[in-house]
Design brief:
By secondary structure, this protein is of the alpha+beta class. It has one domain: Alpha-Beta Complex (Aspartate Aminotransferase, domain 1), CATH 3.90.1150. The protein has a five-stranded antiparallel β-sheet, covered by helices on one side. A hairpin with an 8-residue loop joins strand 4 and strand 5. The chain is globular and about 40 Å long. 25% of the residues are buried.
Length: 118
């Protein structure tokens, strides 16, 4: 399981980016953006599992990342990676952080999202 603070620390160390909270009504939603163009490369949210096709009513932390379109189908076959919630489903995926074992499981996907949104 990856905790959101672990994720934020990793992104701050590697990309020198801190999360911001663009919505007053969704205080736990955090955008991670490029400093120069302010485009999001990641979005962290706490949502109910049904939003990504899972059972349960206790909120979970998820991470949305942009990926190359040709990899969407393959990525969604990996445990913990789902069709994007709240973003373009052809270009983004949602990762259930509680299903990831370590940051190593998603570091390449974060980098890919960072590069694709430059």
């Amino acid at each position: 399981m990856i905790e959101r603070e672990e994720l934020f620390d990793y992104i701050e160390d590697k990309y020198k980016v801190k999360p911001d909270h663009p919505w007053d009504t969704f205080e736990n939603y955090a955008a991670l953006r490029h400093k120069d163009n302010e485009k999001w490369f990641a979005l962290v949210m706490d949502i109910t599992p049904d939003k990504i096709g899972l059972k349960g009513d206790k909120k979970i932390d998820v991470l949305n990342l942009k990926v190359r379109n040709e990899f969407i189908g393959m990525l969604r076959k990996i445990e913990g990676i789902y069709q994007a919630y709240h973003m373009d489903k052809d270009n983004w995926v949602t990762i259930n952080l509680s299903e990831m074992n370590s940051m190593g499981d998603i570091e390449d996907l974060i980098e890919e999202s960072f590069d694709l949104t430059k």
